[in-house]
Fold:
Amino acid sequence: MVCMKKLFLFFALCFFFAAILSAQNFSVRFEMDPRLDKSLFSLAELPAEPFMRSALLASGAGQEETERHLKALEALRQELSARLNSLQSEEEKADAILFFIYEKLLSKYDFYQTRVDLALESGVYNCVSSAIIFMFFCKAAGIPVVANETPRHAFCSIFQDGQAIDVETTNPYGVNPGKKRGQNLGGGKSQWITVPAKNYSGRRQVDDRRTVAMVYNNRISQLQRKKQDAQTVGLAVDAYELQGHSAVSRNDLELCVGNVSALLTREGREEEAVAFLRKAQEAFGSCDSWTKKISNNYYNWALKKIKTEGLEESWAFLDENKENFSQKDFAELKEAACLTAAASAAGKRDWKAAIAIVDQGLKELGQSKRLQNSKSAYQQNVAIDFHNAAADLFNAGKKDEALEKIKEGLAEMPDNKILLNDLSKMSN
Structure:
């Protein structure tokens, strides 16, 4: 007896994977620190006391701590005032101020120590915190002073007879870098000290609001290094309000909000990410980056539903949120939902159900190469089932029944090459 060989089945599957990280609980502040003085937000140049008060609040100091520091600084200002009375030029006064703050306050440099309150308490400082303290005493003494910002540094300039003189506040001899300065060592001895002059790349003069905002920005950078992005948003909000909604502060705010939404997305919390971004839009208005992130979150959210829920549920979600998808993404996701549901039916060897699902997709979406290919694969599997059933009957000596099984298959798929070939062989 001639034996018919059984054929192996094949079908198309479409898988989607999502890496779900451990959920992180956090709260995000969208409201401005109520202690900030709104009347300052439109001023490019701030008086000494409001300038330092804003810097202390930006540093994270509490209300009582802020008042204590301001009181101590006022006492130091009065002490310094007596030293400045005998000096004539602004440069000489700036020299005296810088020496004074190193004598009374600053002692150790730390690249990351940007908080003014901690600098006043511990003596540990960086370019930003030392610049703000220097600027406070200059302002109190009536010396014109501004801050300069570079990508990785901050320093000051004072003005004498309309000419700017740079001040490197991280060094007690930093007034007019490059100038040879003498220090009296006593006993008729002295030494000469020169702080090297630098051509700071990318330097730009900034107003007092931006100077205070440097404290916020440095604190934000430290939090980002510690993977504590949720805490950066409130600081970015304060900096945004303080700077009068400037373009650079808006960009910083958008980045901080975007980082938090990205964290939620990575953790598989797309619905929360969307709600978070919507809240940011309500508070501060929309922007292209947030709109794009909302769309991306809806896309990932849809993929999760496609993987975990049925076709009807997935399509309903897509239809309800159609405005959040591009036309291309919407069609691709609907197609993916069909392919996934059909693959699930195929996994149970229910080829007819898989074909029906694919047909539903073709009816909804029109031409689709992927859906058509899947349908062809499932139809081939149906034909193989008929072939294998006929082979079993044929090999058992039931040729007539085998022939009827092939004809039954051809009634459903009259053009199938496997079944037509079987019919030809059995008819001979």
